[in-house]
Amino acid sequence: MTVLDIRLFGDPVLRTVADPVDDPTGDDSLPAFIDDMLETMDSAGGVGLAANQVGVTRRVFVHDCDGDRGHIINPVWEALDDEVQTAREGCLSVPDAGGQVTRHNRVRVTGVTVDGAPVDREVSGLMARCVQHETDHLDGVMFFQRMEPTDRRAVMADIRASGWFNR
Asked: Does residue 49 contact residue 56 with C-beta atoms inside 8 Å?
């Protein structure tokens, strides 16, 4: 397995909508790629990682939330009710910056695994937040776009002041 380079905010791939994976079981490179994504996420100390965060515009993300570890290919989610949660959220592609983001507390996520097994789950709490955050990545949306304007300005100031941001 390989630890992949995580793309940082400012890289155009993070604003690119990822393409669906047409035939997960017919792509011999996909299992190794998912293993590499899991290793990369672990190495960076994250709970989720979307494929475009490592420069690949395919609809795949990996997760490890409270012992719930795996991946979802071609994820689609829907809110199960109007209940929301607001919590601090960060991102491996935006080091050392984060803030309060409101997300649905319970969602149903569907997709498939690399083996072609269907995924159809109801998740809540951190896993629901992860599903929404990583699917946003696959849609070219960054977490701070979901923040209130004042909080978003604060995150953008942190980004501009960081040593990693390309000015």
From this structure: no
DSSP 20: P
- The number of distinct structural domains making up the chain is 1
Let me know if residue 136 belongs to a domain.
yes
pLDDT in tens, 81-111: 999 999 999 999 999 899 999 999 999 999 9
What CATH number should be reported for the domain holding residue 45?
Answer: 3.90.45.10
With respect to residue 3, please indicate whether it lies within any of the assigned structural domains. Answer: no
Residue 91 lies inside a defined structural domain of this protein: yes
Q: Read off the pLDDT of residues 129-163 as tens digits, 9 standing for 90 and up.
A: 999 999 999 999 999 999 999 999 999 999 999 98
Q: Which domain holds residue 114?
A: 12-161
* pTM score, whole prediction: 0.95
Query: Can 134 be counted among the known catalytic residues?
Result: yes
Among the residues of 103-148, which ranges form H helices? Answer: 125-138
Residue 7 lies in a domain: no
Positions of E strands within 113-161: 118-124
Catalytic residue among 39, 78, 134, 148: 134
Alpha helices in 53-138 (DSSP H): 125-138
Question: Is 63 marked within a binding site?
Answer: no
